[in-house]
Write a structure and sequence with these properties.
elongated; single chain; six-stranded antiparallel beta sheet; about 220 residues; Lipoprotein; four-stranded antiparallel beta sheet
Length: about 220
C-alpha cells in the first residue's frame, strides 16, 4: 500500500443506509454569508427553466446539478474543493461531483473519516439524496437513480494520510436515498439541497498533535 494513501481501520460492523446517514452524514444549516461562496452566476450546460411536468421524476436527460454555494476553506491544513464532473442525469449515469483535498502544509496530515471527507455515503441534511463512490453498481433503476434497497456499509473509522502538498480527488455519484414505507415513489427530486461533512485532523493514530475538527460543505440545486 502506498505510504501516501494508507488507511487505518478501527472497527468493523454493518450499517443500513439510514444509520450511515447518521454516522457519515452531518446535519446543519447552510452556513453564514461570511463562510460561503455564492455560485448563482455559475454558467451551466443545461436549461435553467425549473419547470418539470413530470413532477420531479424525470427518468432521462435531467435533472441536472448546479452548485449554488460552497463554504470557505475550514481552518485546518487540508483544503477541500468541489466540482461538477457530470452535470445532467441520463439513462447511462447519475449526476456526478469531483471532491479534491489538498494538504496545504509542509507536514504530513492525517484526517478522518476517510470516506466522509470525500462525501462518500454522505446524505444531504434532509436525507433525500446520497453520494456514493463512482464506478460501482447499486440497486437503482437506470435513468431514475433512486435506490430501491438500503446499502450495507462497514462501520469503521478510516484515516487518510496526505504528504506535504499532496492533492487527491475522488468522484461521487448522486442517488436518491432509499424511500421509507409510505413515502411517495419518485426518482431524483428537484430543489436545493445542503451537504456537510466533518473533518478531523491530528492525533488520529497515536500522534502527539492536538486533534482538531472542522465542518465543510456546499449546496446544490437539481432542476
Amino acid at each position: 500500500m502506498s505510504p501516501t494513501r494508507r488507511s487505518v481501520v478501527r472497527t468493523s460492523a454493518l450499517l443500513s443506509l439510514g444509520l450511515v446517514a447518521g454516522c457519515l452524514g452531518t446535519g446543519g444549516g447552510s452556513g453564514s454569508d461570511d463562510d460561503t461562496t455564492d455560485m448563482d452566476d455559475t454558467p451551466s450546460d443545461f436549461p435553467t427553466d425549473s419547470s418539470d411536468p413530470s413532477g420531479g421524476t424525470r427518468p432521462s436527460g435531467g435533472p441536472g446539478i448546479t452548485l449554488t454555494s460552497v463554504d470557505s476553506s475550514p481552518d485546518i491544513p487540508l483544503e477541500p474543493m468541489v466540482e461538477v464532473s457530470e452535470a445532467v442525469a441520463t439513462d447511462e449515469r447519475p449526476p456526478q461531483l469531483r471532491i479534491t483535498l489538498t494538504n496545504t502544509s509542509d507536514e504530513t496530515v492525517e484526517v478522518g473519516e476517510g470516506r466522509a471527507i470525500f462525501f462518500e455515503y454522505v446524505t444531504d441534511t434532509s436525507n433525500d439524496l446520497i453520494f456514493l463512490p463512482a464506478g460501482q453498481e447499486y440497486p437503482a433503476e437506470a435513468g431514475c437513480w433512486r435506490l430501491s434497497d438500503p446499502i450495507a456499509v462497514t462501520e469503521e473509522y478510516r484515516i487518510e494520510s496526505f504528504d506535504p502538498g499532496e492533492s487527491r480527488s475522488k468522484l461521487v455519484d448522486l442517488y436518491g436515498a432509499t424511500k421509507q414505507d409510505g413515502d411517495e415513489e419518485t426518482c431524483l427530486p428537484v430543489g436545493e439541497f445542503r451537504f456537510e461533512s466533518t473533518f478531523t485532523v491530528g492525533g488520529l493514530s497515536g500522534g502527539e498533535e492536538d486533534r482538531k475538527t472542522a465542518k465543510w460543505g456546499f449546496s446544490l440545486s437539481l432542476e
